[in-house]
């Protein structure tokens, strides 16, 4: 266990720097000139350091200064401190330069329409175009995965469905999203104005892209009728979901904006009022992580697009 030291002003880098300069120059006046300070300032700093270590560092003679035995042994340690400080400063500068114009953004699968009013993929492309020296990296993941990579620090910000843990994430709600039921165009369900979970009792469902939000709502909806959803054992992708429905294999719960443009062989119907639900979509960042200027600008651009 480390021992305790008496309370007082801890030695600082400036004191160490002046001590090393003086040791190499062999005089306080020469060291002061190289540091662009007065001799009184430098010698006072060295004296203060000697007070900290409670041992003289120099023999002070008319001809100049000479390291004491302690000072000679102390010098290489101080030189290593200064080298470590320079290395840390260089790393910080390099890191700042590499991240100053970089932002990583993840968004939940199928949560954004291609273009149109509000926040869309076109918003992200426009932002990237307006910052030609910026590197905006985009990742399309499930909502669950967005939060995982955000918590690990892999991305700076994410658009997620549902309100994440407030002890871990800061969340800015943007909009409410609804799901429609995508059914084969010639299926009898396509003739209904709205679809209940009970209507889907014997029909295969395309798997949801996340387990925490959408899946939970659907399972709870079926449970109200004493039912369990029948998910088909197929891998997820937007193209696979559309082909699953189009080919008559089953139905899919799809974001409402997918119905804004026609998809051959697919009809979109709302959930019945008693089963309908919305998902809050918003921007999540990890608490305690300093916000990069580019990330702050991206967040502002997204919020403005939503409110426009």
Automatic annotation (TrEMBL):
Q: Which domain of life is it from?
A: Bacteria
Keywords tagged on the record: DNA-binding, Transcription, Transcription regulation
- InterPro entries named in the record: LysR_HTH_N, LysR_subst-bd, WH-like_DNA-bd_sf, WH_DNA-bd_sf
One GO cellular component assignment for this chain's record is: protein-DNA complex
Domain HTH lysR-type as annotated: residue spans? 11-68
Instruction: State the PROSITE patterns in the record.
Output: HTH_LYSR
Gene3D superfamilies reported for this sequence: Periplasmic binding protein-like II, Winged helix-like DNA-binding domain superfamily/Winged helix DNA-binding domain
Q: Which SUPFAM superfamilies match?
A: Periplasmic binding protein-like II, Winged helix' DNA-binding domain
Q: Does the keyword Transmembrane helix apply?
A: no
Q: Mind listing the GO molecular function terms for this protein?
A: DNA binding; DNA-binding transcription factor activity
- Write down the PANTHER family for this protein, in alphabetical order: LYSR FAMILY TRANSCRIPTIONAL REGULATOR (PTHR30346:SF17), TRANSCRIPTIONAL DUAL REGULATOR HCAR-RELATED (PTHR30346)
Hey, which family's this protein in?
Belongs to the LysR transcriptional regulatory family.
Q: What is this protein called?
A: HTH lysR-type domain-containing protein
């Amino acid at each position: 266990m480390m021992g305790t030291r008496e309370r007082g002003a801890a030695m600082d880098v400036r004191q160490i720097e002046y001590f090393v300069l003086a040791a190499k120059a062999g005089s306080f006046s020469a060291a002061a000139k190289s540091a662009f300070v007065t001799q009184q300032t430098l010698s006072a700093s060295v004296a203060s350091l000697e007070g900290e270590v409670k041992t003289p560092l120099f023999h002070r003679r008319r001809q100049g200064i000479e390291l004491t035995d302690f000072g000679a042994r102390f010098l290489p340690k101080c030189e290593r401190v200064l080298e470590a400080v320079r290395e840390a400063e260089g790393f910080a500068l390099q890191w700042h330069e590499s991240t100053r114009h970089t932002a990583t953004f993840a968004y939940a699968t199928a949560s954004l329409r291609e273009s149109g009013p509000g926040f869309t993929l076109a918003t992200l492309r426009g932002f990237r175009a307006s910052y030609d020296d910026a590197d905006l990296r985009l990742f399309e993941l499930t909502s669950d995965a967005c939060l995982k990579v955000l918590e690990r620090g892999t991305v700076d910000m994410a658009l997620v469905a549902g309100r994440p843990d407030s002890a871990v994430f800061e969340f800015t709600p943007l909009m409410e999203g609804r799901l429609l039921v995508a059914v084969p165009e010639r299926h009898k369900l396509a003739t209904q104005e709205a679809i209940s979970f009970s209507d889907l009792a014997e029909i295969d469902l395309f798997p949801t892209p996340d387990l925490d939000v959408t899946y939970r709502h659907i399972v709870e909806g079926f449970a109200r009728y004493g039912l369990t959803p029948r998910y088909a054992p197929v891998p997820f992708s937007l193209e696979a979901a559309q082909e699953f429905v189009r080919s008559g294999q089953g139905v899919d719960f799809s974001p409402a904006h997918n119905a804004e443009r026609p998809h051959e062989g697919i009809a979109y119907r709302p959930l019945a009022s008693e089963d309908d639900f919305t998902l809050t979509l918003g921007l999540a960042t990890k608490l305690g992580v300093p916000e990069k200027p580019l990330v702050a600008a991206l967040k502002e651009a997204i919020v403005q697009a939503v409110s426009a």
